[in-house]
TrEMBL record:
Annotated compartments: Endoplasmic reticulum membrane
Function per UniProt: Mannosylates Man(2)GlcNAc(2)-dolichol diphosphate and Man(1)GlcNAc(2)-dolichol diphosphate to form Man(3)GlcNAc(2)-dolichol diphosphate.
Residue ranges occupied by any Glycosyltransferase subfamily 4-like N-terminal domain in the UniProt entry: 12-187
Name the UniProt record assigns to this protein: Alpha-1,3/1,6-mannosyltransferase ALG2
Length: 414
């Protein structure tokens, strides 16, 4: 079958990772092309630039915003143009649209193929409405979002948490969405070459504690929590030493590590065209300095896959700070690499992380995270192995691929 994916901005976030993995999964059985409104060769996943996937960019000449305003409206217009391009030029059997649903009615009305919408999270819940004009502006877009979502032949969501939010938010849509958990292309992780910390630009003691945060530089990702938690973690240690640690996971040191060997790497997706990315990165750098953490913290902008995978392999644990995250693919990646996860006890991580077994689910506070960091250090290897088993059993790429291809086949046959 001919399967097309329509995605607004093919960068390096979790939603983009899902689309890329889904396209790779479907490609094993069907013809696949990914259509997007933005794709930059230096800010994308390797599968979209090395020939693994065919990517067609349409409408990038349209603005993302006007004087920093109207980003949602511009995204709608860009996706409408993308949908129109597919209607006029691209025959398909199944179209998979995600994030922005505005083009779904267009595809359904003028194409013979079936349309599947993958809802990461209702967009109307991600914005504020502080002024009267903003309420009117968002009210119109919210109505369009709900109506256009209802036009899909089938709707998928990324977690049971999102399914519950979807049902409460889109009350006019009676058919409940199906849950399809994202996965990861494990082959890419397995073939990723080894790198040492010096090669990655990180200097620390060989037996030190390495905490890693992987998220886009966006305020909703709550990255400041990792910095405050690190400060609390350091402050609770003795003046001369830290607690004994089995990190790195491939060795078992018997002596405690000095404070200076504890390090936090905040590796985030960073788009130089995104104003929030620029501003929030600078905010975090200032916060690190104000907490006297500069010698303990490294910031990495848009690390490549090799860097990310090696950080996760080497880490004592992943510090995952978003609150009420819709799903969160990074905890899955971390557990597959044998690294436990500390996350907020809400949203998608409650469905992926087993508290006390593959990591810890904590209150959204520095005290809660710092306490979990102290608990995880001596159990890093044990919890990491449990995480590996959980990913293989519940979130394998093979299972994801089979489920998605079955959904596509059933949809096309109806």
């Amino acid at each position: 079958m001919r399967v097309v994916f329509l995605h607004p901005d093919l960068g390096i976030g979790g939603a983009e990772r899902l689309v890329v993995d889904a396209a790779v999964a479907v490609r094993s059985c069907h013809q696949v092309v990914v259509y997007t409104t933005h794709h930059h060769p230096h800010h994308c996943f390797p599968e979209t630039r090395d020939g693994t996937l065919k990517v067609v960019c349409v409408g990038d000449w349209l603005p993302r915003s006007v004087l920093g305003k109207g980003a949602a409206l511009c995204a709608y217009l860009r996706m409408l143009l993308l949908g129109l391009y597919v209607v006029l030029r691209v025959p398909f059997d199944v179209a998979i649209v995600d994030q922005v649903s505005v083009c779904v009615p267009l595809l359904r009305a003028f194409c013979r193929g079936k349309v599947l919408f993958y809802c990461h999270y209702p967009d109307l819940l991600l914005t504020t409405r502080k002024t009267f004009l903003k309420k009117i502006y968002r009210g119109v877009l919210d109505a369009i979002e709900e109506w256009s979502t209802s036009c899909a032949h089938k709707v998928l969501v990324n977690s049971a948490f999102t399914a519950g939010v979807f049902k409460q938010t889109f009350k006019s849509i009676k058919d409940p969405p199906a849950v399809l958990y994202p996965s990861l292309n494990t082959e890419n992780f397995l073939k990723c070459p080894e790198r040492n910390m010096d090669d990655l630009g990180i200097s620390m003691a060989e037996n030190g504690n390495l905490f890693v945060s992987v998220n886009r530089f966006e305020r909703k990702k709550n990255l400041g929590l990792a910095l405050h938690a690190l400060r609390q973690f350091l402050d609770t240690q003795d003046s001369d030493s830290e607690i004994s640690t089995p990190s790195p996971k491939d060795s078992t040191p018997t002596t405690p590590s000095p404070k200076g060997s504890t390090h936090l790497v905040i590796a985030g997706g960073y788009d130089p065209q995104n104003r929030e990315n620029i501003e929030h990165y600078e905010e975090l750098v200032r916060l690190s300095s104000s907490l006297n953490l500069d010698e303990h913290v490294t910031f990495l902008k848009s690390p490549d896959e090799v860097t990310k995978v090696n950080l996760l392999r080497r880490a004592t644990c992943l510090i995952y700070t978003p609150d009420a995250e819709h799903f969160g693919i990074v905890p899955i990646e971390s557990m597959f690499c044998g690294t436990p996860v500390i996350g907020v006890n809400s949203g998608g991580p409650t469905e992926t992380v087993v508290h006390g077994v593959t990591g810890y689910l904590c209150p959204n506070t520095p005290e809660g995270f710092a306490a979990a960091m102290r608990e995880v250090v001596p159990r890093s290897r044990e919890m990491g192995e449990a995480g590996k088993r959980r990913v293989r059993e519940r979130f394998s790429f093979e299972r994801f691929s089979q489920d998605l291809t079955d959904i596509i086949s059933e949809l096309a046959a109806t």
